[in-house]
Amino acid sequence: MIKLFKVKEKQRELAENASGGAPVKKQSAGELRLHKDISELNLPKSCTIQFPNGKDDLMNFEVTIRPDDGYYLGGIFLFSFQVSPIYPHEAPKVKCKTKVYHPNIDLEGNVCLNILREDWKPVLNINTVIYGLYHLFTEPNYEDPLNHDAAAMLRENPKLFESNVRRAMAGGYVGQTFFPRCI
Amino acid sequence: MAESAATQPSRSRDLDKLLLRPGNLVGPRFEPSAQLRDDVQNHARVLVVGAGGLGCELLKDLALSGFHNLDVIDMDRIEVTNLNRQFLFRVEDVGKPKAEVAAKRVMERISGVNIVPHFCRIEDKDIDFYNDFMIIALGLDSVEARSYINNVACSFLEYDSDDNPLEETIKPMVDGGTEGFKGHARVILPGVTPCFECTIWLFPPQVKFPLCTLAETPRTAAHCIEYAHLIKWNEAHGGTAFDPDNPQHMKWVYDEAAKRAELFGIPGVTYSFTQGVVKNIIPAIASTNAIISAACTLETLKIATECSKTMSNYLTYNGSEGLHTKVAEFERDKDCLVCGPGVLIEVDTSVTLQKFMNLLEEHPKLQLTKASITHRGKNLYMQAPPVLEEMTRSNLCLPLFELMGKLSKDVIHVNGMTNKNNQKVSCLRKLRVTFKGVDGVTDMDTAGGA
Lengths: 183, 450
Hints:
- The structure holds two protein chains of two kinds.
- By secondary structure, chain A is an alpha+beta fold.
- Chain A has helices at residues 2-17, 29-39, 126-138, 148-156, 158-170, and strands at 47-50, 60-65, 77-82, 93-96, 172-174, 177-179.
- Chain A starts with a helix and ends with a strand.
- Chain B is built from 16 helices and 13 strands.
- At the A-B interface, helix 1, helix 2 and strand 1 of A face helix 3, helix 6, helix 7, helix 8 and helix 9 of B.
- Chain A: The active site is at residue 112.
- Chain A: Pathway: Protein modification; protein neddylation.
């Protein structure tokens, strides 16, 4: 197709004369979808979102959860979110930055929430994930344990579990593990 | 015989059958001639992205199909496990950049071919680099990399005022992919056939195991490996990020996985399986690469010469039980944010962001309320969350022209609410904004529309 070669020459001329300047790589589809998620966020009062890198970096942000019910009432828990350019093909990466005594969050901050891994679907969004995290605090469950000891305690002795949670949140030891104050 | 007497008997004998003779299945603008063959040799620059299993095949196939000006880009170095199928590499090449060795080997074997290697990440090249090629051939193994190149290629695309793509701005891509005995080859003509983003749902999501299964109830060797990789590594190494290309890291994960497998009586944890799980590797089959590459090369030749119509537009191949192959015609997502035309909107340079948002509400095609607007990665206004609304509120009284860097025209993306069947639904739209009376824009648009 000789024409294509000629057409390409024309394109070069066009590019040189273009008033819009050189083409710029567009935002990835993932960034645009995230923009939509963020601009439509509708969070409960107990959850707030922060953007440490300013208003133009939406791909890295933090969420603070202050549970208003349940064992963790009064605690303040910080989560970091990292969103990939192929979002929502891939779930956001979420870590809990506050050390917490919790059956579904381990001491490294890994979170066992089904929609972050095996049950992630592109129709889900950031709002769902934040609600999911909030839910972990109002209804911790011992059936998906990441912190084995905390899960066993919740299952076998909820009263003691509750006092362990209070002690950890106030800043103190549960067993051999020290938890910094997060109230 | 008459034919071979007329032209010098040459290496291009088979190619000449396609390019020097007329035919019934040719494209509408096909003009058979020796000139065409020479133009392919001399002027058609093709970029091969990836110099791995597919990339090696593509370079060889393209060079033998008459493309003599090739570039290849790859950030990887040769590993010993590549040698069974990445046939351009030898044992003594282990550790060298794939792009450089692949280019050198093909040039040694096929005279007259010039291949420029680029040993770097695809993101390291600026966008103009990609614009210099007539066609981009992809031999990649990740969704991320495809998505990136697709985004770059689509960013050259421009539409006229009737939303028809301007042909000279179409950057064709030919994409190959293989997984074991399965593969695909597809032709992406941005603005004409579906782009990668239009059909991203074709890619199956990665299998991810629940963390609690890994922590509590491992049942398979892969569970043990992912436990060591995702949980145990951070426990033991705190700050150090796991590097899948660091053999010591991999060995550590393998050792931990083996211990755990023994504890739970699970068989099957080996070093190579550990690599496979952690790096998400599916064993590659040389013949699949060869078949897919051949299909891609043929399509590249067809795009360049129109010696035949290109396939429409997605070929699948499955050689795992007998052989099954077919071509499916996928459709474009007309609202695709990456390759779609978006909505053309013309405004005065004096219009403030607030006024512009009012215009979006009144615009018959859009009727878009509660707009949040982003331009080249800068958030001009965000409706939510409150922290971002506050940070962007002061932009509302500024002219859009200034907020967009005084460009005469550019693309912005708007998210908001619109009416659909009398219901408020959320939508995300691409807009092509042009400013009235700024140097020559109107001229160009009418030229394109004519």
